[in-house]
Design goal:
Length: 190
Amino acid sequence: MNESENLNSMGPESAKESQSSNQAQKVEVVVANQSSEGEVDILGELAIFVLRVGFSLFMIHHGLEKLQDPEGFAEFVVGKYFGFLPGDPIIWTFAAGVTQIVCPIGLAIGIFARLSALGLLSTMLFAIYFHLVDTGLEGFPFAVVEGHNYIFELSAIYAAIALYFLCAGPGRLSAFRKKNKVTYYPKGSK
């Protein structure tokens, strides 16, 4: 017997209760860092906040680096490794630098966090491409390399962090978060 047949065999009141309890369970699963009792995981939210702000500060640093010598970055990185991009390499350099300054500010504050994370993820995917074309995989994942880290490793970690914020959002400790609406039924009230 499938779910719709099961609902049809119940009375109208029982079917409504069954449907609403199924919907309530789905909502509880969607809400991150919240237990089934409605409690928020404060340490988890604090960890997300620290990760978000720390990541943003590092990204701002990388953006400022690009804008300190845009001609050099345009010539030796964009022009050499990204010749397939249309237009002048200096424009792409400024676009990457500005993205790595503006988007982290939005992410750190929590304004347009997912859009900001998408911008940062795109710059990190270009960085991974650059490092892989420049140095290759370097024997990843089993080789012991000079400096004990792969050249593309930091860009890959940054990309993973940006992907997390793109998918999960900024967390509860952000300036402009949407209120999570949770239907909560105390134990024994159903």
